[in-house]
Structures are given as C-alpha cells and as structure tokens.
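Supplementary notes (optional reading)

For those who missed the lab, this is the record we used. Protein: Cytochrome c oxidase subunit 7A2, mitochondrial. Length: 83 residues.
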Amino acid sequence: MLRNLLALRQIAQRTISTASRRQIENKVPEKQKLFQEDNGIPVHLKGGIADALLYRATMMLTVGGTAYAIYQLAMASFPKKQD
C-alpha cells in the first residue's frame, strides 16, 4: 500500500511540474499594434474574418429575434375569432 501511495505521489508531481511545458510566444505586442492602428475599421471588426462573421451572425440573430417578437406580439394582440 505504501508503494502505491508513493507511486501516486510521484505521478502527481510529474503532471503538475511546469518543466515539461513548452513556452508560448507572447503575441500581445502584435495584437496591440493591430488594434491601435488608425485605419477606419471599428475595433470590434479588427480581428479579421472571424470577427466579421461573428458580428454579422449576431446582427442577423438580433434582427430576426426582434422581427419574431414583433410578429408574436401582433398575433397575441389580435386573437383568432371563434365561430
């Protein structure tokens, strides 16, 4: 049992160790230059195509949801006549 406990301790120490992790390149200065550049593009679209797609999808969902809410309000305010 003691051997199992020591083995578990050794495995836990290996997984927590930061020595085996690879270093990630710091891209913050590049991103700062990109977002601070004065090129007439709004800051929420400066990230590229992915930002433009997210923006357009959000706008479509917003407009569609607003139209659907107005439609449902109109249907609720004019109930069907019962014969």
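If you only remember one thing from this example: Residues 41-78 form a domain with the Cytochrome C Oxidase; Chain J fold (CATH 4.10.91.10).
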